[in-house]
Write a structure and sequence with these properties.
By secondary structure, the protein is of the alpha/beta class. It has 16 helices and 13 strands. It folds into 2 domains: 162 residues, 3-Layer(aba) Sandwich (D-Maltodextrin-Binding Protein, domain 2), CATH 3.40.190.10; 135 residues, D-Maltodextrin-Binding Protein, domain 2, CATH 3.40.190. It comes from Collimonas arenae.
């Protein structure tokens, strides 16, 4: 009996020793007492992704975390200078980010949106195909592409200039506004449409939602991931096939010699400062695996708007409901620590 107890105790000690040896150590960055500062990005999908990453870094890896708010330019500059360490949902479009990568001060890791992004010019589905359940007849069944827009201008009348249609662009200062301005030139729409910028992202969503709920025609720019993509049914207008040559002219707001092209799908990544990459390689390994399907993201964003809750609420609910997915991103002991906090 004594031998059995000794053997059992020995096996237990070996198991504990093995478990201790396999446990994920606190990243050096965090062990030194330095907080991991996340950019407090304002749009909903970025809030959702940021809160998922933040929750796991804080509760799974034992790091202190902070959120740093500011404009895109300010927080991206702070990332490059290592005044903050993590910028979730990077689209890799700004000169600040491109230069930061070239200079070796930051890197973009992971692929957080499975399938990539989607951007373009849209109309409600009922405009093209009708909606029998709502008693709406199709009023533009031939509207397929941006080349068709001039002959349909009267459907999208601009209240302030009734002789023209209205294209609902992004708010002034957004990167997509600059891209759409160039496409507006390329598609030669100035004579038939007003290039209208709403005051805020909220105003953009409210205008689209109001028209959709009333069954009215509206022409607008939109993108995925975004809440309205999960709530409504839109038709994306065809644009010329992608070419690198034309995409460069679309990105260059200083030229009028622009040719149209569809916006390519982008891989959404996580921007991280180089010192943090060196100080927390286990966290970077987690970031490289973090990836959520677009339908889950769009649904979460819709919930944020309808329930008036923040990204932290939806991120926690996502972690509670999708254990089989996110536990693939981290070691088992990290997953156990996260689960204890859910």
């Amino acid at each position: 009996m004594k031998k059995i107890i000794i053997k059992t105790g020995g096996a237990l000690l070996l198991t504990l020793a093995a478990t201790a040896a396999q446990a994920t150590a606190t990243p050096q960055w965090c062990a030194e007492g330095k907080p991991v500062k996340f950019a407090g990005v304002t749009w909903e999908s970025a809030q959702f992704f940021t809160e998922i990453a933040n929750f796991i870094v804080e509760n799974g890896y034992g790091c202190k975390t902070e959120s740093v708010t500011g404009s895109t330019a300010v927080t991206e500059t702070a990332l490059v200078s290592n005044d903050l360490q993590v910028w979730v949902e990077q689209w890799d479009r700004t000169n600040v980010i491109k230069k930061g990568r070239t200079d070796g001060k930051i890197d973009l890791v992971g692929n957080i949106l499975a399938g990539g992004t989607r951007e373009g010019w849209f109309v409600p589905d009922y405009v093209v195909n009708g909606d029998a359940k709502r008693g709406i007849k199709a009023i533009a069944p031939g509207l397929k592409s941006v080349a068709d827009l001039p002959k349909y201008k009267d459907l999208f009348t601009d209240d302030e200039d009734p002789a023209k249609g209205r294209f609902l662009n992004c708010p002034s200062g957004w990167d997509c506004e600059r891209i759409n301005n160039q496409k507006f030139k390329a598609y030669k729409l100035a004579a038939t449409y007003t290039n209208f910028r709403p005051g805020t992202g909220g105003a953009l969503d409210a205008t689209i939602s109001s028209a959709y709920e009333r069954g009215k025609p509206i022409l607008f720019y939109y993108w995925s991931p975004a809440g309205l993509m999960g709530k409504y049914k839109f038709v994306q207008l065809q644009e010329p096939e992608f070419t690198e040559k034309c995409w460069k002219t679309v990105q260059n707001s200083t030229t009028d010699d622009v040719c149209g092209t569809v916006t390519p799908s982008f891989k959404l990544t996580i921007g991280v400062s180089t010192p943090f990459i060196k100080g927390a390689p286990d966290v970077i390994a987690f970031f490289n695996k973090l990836s959520v399907p677009a339908d889950i993201v769009n649904h979460a964003i819709t919930e944020m708007g309808e329930r008036k809750v923040g990204g932290s609420v939806l991120a926690k609910e996502f972690l509670q409901k999708n254990k089989a997915l996110w536990t693939q991103w981290v070691p088992a002991d990290v997953a156990q620590k996260v689960e204890l906090k859910l």
